[in-house]
């Protein structure tokens, strides 16, 4: 409930047009810097309802997904797992979530986005309930697969839901997508921190049961918000608005080299982020942090990540894509090294800055997707982008876990810091593609 409450603040601000820092990529050299008349056009209630539903789904799904980072050290200790197997457990969830992104968009054309979003939320909630009620390792692994399957519906369908609801209002659409994106970080902040507090009094099994019940409540809320198909504007004759059809052209992958470079950049960025988050709890544990301390550190990290979504949008407008990404990724590498060298209290103090840099880049990259593909291909483009980036997040924990088993956790984290620097040349290619379209 706390995460849902926090979502209302950015949504209200977005509705009034008072959060320009949340607007996605816009070129400082184009007319988009000037206020457009449509920026203050009141949006239909159906559009705002779609944005609220998508934001709630994003917050709940991302919160329950990133909760796994708090649970990994507990599972490793209880079941006596290697670091590679522990990373593979995170990979089970991420791989299933990545692999069903594109199929989810196809199923939505048959059953509708509302049914898929609600059903996916129910599956994630049931996964946590099953894991909590059983507590056995094989059941936990199966629950991770089930949870990843349910989570695969959220990113492509909720993004497209918002984009369609605000179609024809470019400035409002960018603000709406930024609000939706920001809501995910609020969930990442609230759920892991809340469960970290619960672990002070409850076992991890009982904590997962509580999370599962929260997920079922969120699914009921989504069913109410999406009780009718999302509407797009009003009918030309003044009658009731009709459901916006899903364009069939979206089934065609976007064949642009700029998008391919963007996806590759997202793969490196996501792999770095997932690899770091997987082993951060082990680094903190070695410094003396318990489960509650790890939950607090992750909460601070995600608070910084949420602020990074806002700050990096402002930085990109003033510095451009290339300088912004180079700044954030370079600072990410330095902060990872700092986390290894500093004592517990120093690492804890570094978490907000590290989160800002670690997560801010993803917001800048995500905002480039609509600029690199034609409008009719955006639904498919979002699904492909998330498939690539989440797939990298599935592979990275196992890869860096193997390195941790061979060299040690500290050396694996140093490899993460070096890996993030691969984004620098890839970002230059993306910038050239944007410049060719007059967008950077």
Explain the overall architecture.
Helix content is 77%, strand content 0%. The radius of gyration is 21 Å and the shape is globular. It has 440 residues and is mainly alpha-helical. It has one domain (2-17, 44-232, 250-436): MFS general substrate transporter like domains (Growth Hormone, Chain: A), CATH 1.20.1250.
Shape: globular
Number of strands: 0
- End-to-end separation: 40 Å
- The CATH architecture category equals Up-down Bundle
Q: Biggest sheet: strands, sense, closure?
A: none
What is the overall pLDDT average?
A: 76
Tally of alpha and pi helices: 18
- CATH H-level superfamily: MFS general substrate transporter like domains
In N-to-C order, the SSE pattern is: HHHHHHHHHHHHHHHHHH
How large a portion of the residues is in β-strands, by DSSP E? under 5%
**Stretches where pLDDT falls below 50 for ≥5 residues?**
1-40, 229-255
Structural class: mainly alpha
CATH topology type: Growth Hormone, Chain: A
Concise synopsis of the structure shown:
Helix content is 77%, strand content 0%. With 440 residues, the protein is an all-alpha fold.
């Amino acid at each position: 409930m706390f995460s849902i409450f926090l979502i209302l603040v950015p949504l209200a601000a977005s509705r009034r047009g008072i959060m320009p820092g949340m607007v996605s990529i816009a070129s400082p050299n184009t007319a988009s810097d000037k206020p457009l008349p449509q920026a203050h056009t009141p949006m239909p209630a159906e559009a705002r309802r779609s944005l609220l539903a998508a934001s709630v789904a994003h917050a709940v799904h991302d919160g329950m997904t990133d909760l796994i980072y708090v649970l990994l050290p507990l599972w490793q200790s209880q079941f006596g797992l290697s670091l590679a197997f522990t990373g593979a457990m995170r990979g089970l969830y991420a791989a299933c979530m990545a692999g069903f992104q594109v199929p989810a968009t196809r199923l939505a054309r048959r059953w509708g986005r509302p049914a898929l979003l609600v059903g996916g939320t129910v599956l994630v909630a049931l996964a946590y309930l099953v894991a909590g009620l059983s507590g056995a390792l094989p059941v936990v692994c199966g629950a991770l697969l089930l949870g990843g399957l349910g989570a695969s519906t959220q990113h492509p369908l909720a993004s497209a839901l918002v984009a369609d609801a605000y179609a024809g209002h470019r400035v409002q659409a960018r603000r709406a997508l930024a609000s939706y994106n920001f809501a995910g970080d609020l969930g990442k902040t609230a759920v892991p921190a809340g469960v970290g507090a619960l672990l002070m009094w409850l076992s991890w099994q009982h904590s997962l049961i509580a999370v599962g019940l929260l997920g079922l409540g969120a699914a009921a809320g989504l069913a109410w918000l999406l009780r009718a198909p999302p509407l797009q504007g009003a009918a030309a004759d003044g009658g009731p608005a009709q459901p916006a059809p899903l364009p069939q052209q979206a089934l065609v992958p976007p064949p642009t080299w700029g998008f391919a470079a963007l996806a590759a950049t997202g793969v490196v960025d996501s792999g770095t982020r997932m690899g770091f988050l997987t082993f951060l709890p082990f680094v903190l544990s070695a410094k003396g942090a318990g489960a509650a301390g790890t939950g607090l550190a992750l909460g601070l990290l995600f608070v910084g990540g949420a602020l990074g979504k806002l700050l990096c949008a402002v930085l990109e407008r003033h510095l451009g894509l290339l300088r912004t990404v180079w700044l954030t990724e370079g600072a990410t590498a330095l902060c990872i090294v700092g986390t290894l060298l500093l004592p517990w209290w120093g690492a804890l103090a570094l978490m907000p800055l590290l989160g800002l840099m670690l997560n801010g880049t993803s917001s800048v990259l995500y905002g480039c997707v609509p600029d690199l593909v034609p409008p009719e291909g955006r639904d498919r483009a979002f699904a492909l982008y998330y498939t690539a980036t989440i797939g990298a997040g599935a592979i990275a924990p196992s890869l860096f876990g193997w390195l941790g088993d061979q060299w040690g956790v500290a050396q694996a984290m140093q490899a993460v810091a070096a890996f993030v620097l691969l984004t620098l040349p890839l970002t230059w290619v993306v910038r050239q593609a944007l410049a060719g379209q007059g967008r950077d």
